[in-house]
Structures are given as structure tokens and as C-alpha cells.
Design goal:
Number of strands: 7
Oligomer: single chain
Structural class: alpha/beta
Low-confidence stretches: none
Radius of gyration: 21 Å
Largest sheet: 7 strands, mixed
Order of helices and strands: HEHEHEHEHHHHHHHEHHEHE
Helix content: 40-55%
Number of helices: 14
Strand order of the largest sheet: 3-2-1-4-5-7-6
Distance between the termini: 43 Å
């Protein structure tokens, strides 16, 4: 298993602006990289970390217990953040972090079907207990048009039509390697020679659709902004344009007045009457050093919003 290095760790912790007696939420526990750093900064405060994967919860509990006991892991999807916190008697918090990168231990487990690097069943469900939609069902039962739309909308796959057509012709497709083989047959030779894995976009698209990721993120972010105390912050690390679009739209909605859209060409700033402000207009990117040391970080961007 490759070593997991948390992306934009220094910057995300810095912009959470952690108070030692504050209440913080890590919506994406994963391998507990960010959670560990938040917990180290708390004295009387409390950290709530959310994940729906059993392996991540077990490993995270073991890792965080070595730091302190000021944490609670909440099992579930961050789309239910308000309800999960309410059940613990928490109705407002000082900071919330989302690291949307694929870092959970489940991605290294072949039988979960997330990776084109391992042969396994076409599953891709993050929450196997409550989600009945699998990648296998989509690949083997959806129409060519539905498959095309998924690959284009969620994977930005230029060869969506060719891949969808070949999927239909190759059914049944039962394993990840069988799907990879179909994808390779569908792409031009010059694309296959490139460094990126030819199945990357298709697997991303299927994973996003299976887990309803964009709608889930949108709903969760809306709840998070309503949970913030004054001066509280939401910090989000995105990795692709779909995530960026969701974050950008919600942050814009909560920070920009209508007049700011129409008077944006004025030579001076118009103070927004909204309850939130952006800490910087353009998202932060990793340093060159971080990208050299951790290739996963090359597409990462950091977004921060604060309640006034």
C-alpha cells in the first residue's frame, strides 16, 4: 500500500484558524492525515471526523487515540452532517474541512472495485450498507445514451460515445480489468500511448455517479455554512473541475450581492451585505515543492469561506 501524504496540509490547517477550545469537523477522515493535525492543536476543544468506510474508521480511531481523546468519529456520509452533529448535541462549530481527494483505504482494496490498477468486481460503492447502485449495474443495464452522459458529464471523457458503444457490445462486463480492456479498445492509439491511464476518466465518472458525489457535496456545503459560528471557516480541497464548480457556485451565492455582479467593473470594492466572505478570490494551489514530493497534489486547490 502506497504511503498516503495529506495534500495542502500546512495551508488547510493554517486557514482553519484553530482555537484550542474550538469545535471542528473533518468531513473526510480517510487516513486521518488532516484530522491528526487538527487534533494536535486542540486542548479543551473537540474534533468530529466523518467517514462511511469501516477500514478508515478503524485505522483513524487507532491513529487519533495516540494523540488525544478529544475526538469522535461519526460513521456515515457527510451529506448528513447536520443530523450527525445534532445527535451529539452540536449545533454550531468553529471550522469544517473537506479534503475531497480520493484517499480512503478502500481504494487499495481490489474487491471494492474502485481502481483500474487491481482486478475486482465492479462495485465502487463507498457505503455498501445503504447504497444499492453499483458500477456493475450501470455498466450492464444503462442505455448507451445514459452511459455517454455519465462519462461526458462526470469524467469529461472525449471518447464517451465510443466507450459507451463498446460497453453495450461487450456485455456482460463483470470485473474492473474487463472494463479496462473495453475502454482500451475504444480509444485511439495515440491516446493509449499517453502517460495517463486510459481508464482514469471512465472510472472517475462511474464512481461519482454511483456515490452521487456532486449532489452530496452541494447539500453538505450548504449545511456546513449554516453550522458555522461567527468567524468560523469552511476549508475545501478540490481535485477536479466538477468539485470546483460546486464549491465556486455555493461560495459565490453566500458572499456576493446582486449589485456586485452588475457593478464588478468599478475601480473600488463594494462591501457585501452577505453574512460570509471569501478569504481570497482565487483558490490556493500547492507549492512547487509539494507537487514534486507528492504528485497527487498537482490538481489540488484550496478554497476558504468565513462567517462574518
Amino acid at each position: 500500500m502506497e504511503k498516503h501524504i495529506p495534500v495542502l496540509l500546512k495551508e488547510s490547517i493554517e486557514y482553519l484558524n484553530i482555537k484550542e477550545n474550538g469545535i471542528y469537523v473533518d468531513c473526510t477522515l480517510g487516513r486521518a492525515g488532516h484530522s491528526s493535525e487538527i487534533l494536535k492543536k486542540l486542548k479543551d476543544g473537540k474534533l468530529f471526523s466523518i467517514d462511511q468506510d469501516e477500514t478508515a474508521i478503524l485505522e483513524g480511531t487507532e491513529k487519533l487515540t495516540k494523540i488525544s481523546n478529544n475526538f469522535k468519529i461519526l460513521e456515515g456520509n457527510f451529506v448528513n452532517i447536520s443530523a450527525m452533529l445534532a445527535m451529539k448535541g452540536i449545533f454550531e462549530v468553529d471550522g469544517i474541512l473537506y479534503d475531497l481527494g480520493v484517499s480512503s483505504p478502500q481504494f487499495d482494496v481490489a474487491e471494492r472495485g474502485f481502481s483500474y490498477r487491481f482486478d475486482g468486481p465492479l462495485d465502487m460503492r463507498m457505503d455498501r450498507a445503504n447504497n444499492s447502485l453499483t458500477a456493475h449495474k450501470i455498466v450492464n443495464e444503462y442505455t448507451q445514451e445514459e452511459l455517454e452522459q455519465i462519462l461526458w458529464n462526470y469524467g469529461d471523457e472525449k471518447f464517451a460515445r465510443s466507450i459507451a458503444k463498446n460497453i453495450i457490445l461487450s456485455r456482460p462486463i463483470n470485473t474492473t480489468f474487463e472494463l479496462v480492456s473495453v475502454i482500451k479498445k475504444s480509444l485511439p492509439a495515440k491516446i493509449l500511448k499517453q502517460q495517463k491511464h486510459p481508464a482514469k476518466k471512465t472510472f472517475q465518472a462511474l464512481r461519482i455517479r454511483v456515490n452521487n458525489e456532486m449532489e452530496t457535496l452541494e447539500s453538505s456545503l450548504e449545511q456546513s455554512l449554516n453550522l458555522l459560528k461567527p468567524k468560523g471557516r469552511v476549508v475545501v480541497i478540490t481535485f477536479h473541475s466538477l468539485e470546483e464548480k460546486v464549491v465556486k457556485n455555493i461560495f459565490k451565492k453566500y458572499t456576493l450581492d446582486e449589485q456586485q455582479f452588475y457593478l464588478s467593473n468599478l475601480p473600488y470594492e463594494i462591501e457585501s451585505s452577505k453574512d460570509f466572505k471569501l478569504l481570497f478570490k482565487k483558490p490556493l494551489k500547492p507549492t512547487n515543492t509539494e507537487v514534486e514530493n507528492n504528485n497527487r497534489s498537482h490538481s489540488a486547490k484550496l478554497w476558504v469561506i468565513e462567517k462574518k
